[in-house]
Specification:
- The longest helix is centred in the middle third of the chain and has 23 residues.
- The chain contains four helices and no strands.
- The chain is mainly alpha-helical.
- Helices cover 79% and strands 0% of the residues.
């Protein structure tokens, strides 16, 4: 169940970060509320995931997958682009997350 908490924590963080852009420096109330709720849910669920997933592994997965998903949201919703170096860096982050996930001694 802790892995489910981690996945939902990642998705909540992505929602919060996406709303952060839309909040226009917290000048728009609805996106600002979504930011606070998204981050609050994310950190709460991340704390639950840490019951069985080592903090180094959980945080690396949370931040790495979240970063890749935010890049996808930025591309789809905000029409932002990435250059070759940025895409390569993201590839390395994803590869690192995969290695961490596969080598973690946490029960699956």
């Amino acid at each position: 169940m802790d892995r489910v908490y981690l996945v939902v924590a990642i998705l909540s963080e992505v929602v919060g970060t996406s709303a952060l852009k839309a909040s226009e420096a917290f000048s728009k109330p609805l996106p600002s509320i979504i930011v606070v709720i998204g981050y609050g849910v994310s950190f709460f669920l991340l704390s639950l995931a840490l019951r069985s997933i080592p903090v180094a592994v959980a945080y690396a997965i949370w931040s790495g997958v979240g970063q890749a998903l935010i890049a996808l949201v930025a591309w789809l919703a905000f029409r932002q682009t990435l250059n070759a170096g940025e895409m390569a860096g993201m590839g390395f982050i994803i590869a690192g997350v995969v290695v961490l996930s596969l080598s973690s001694q946490t029960a699956h």
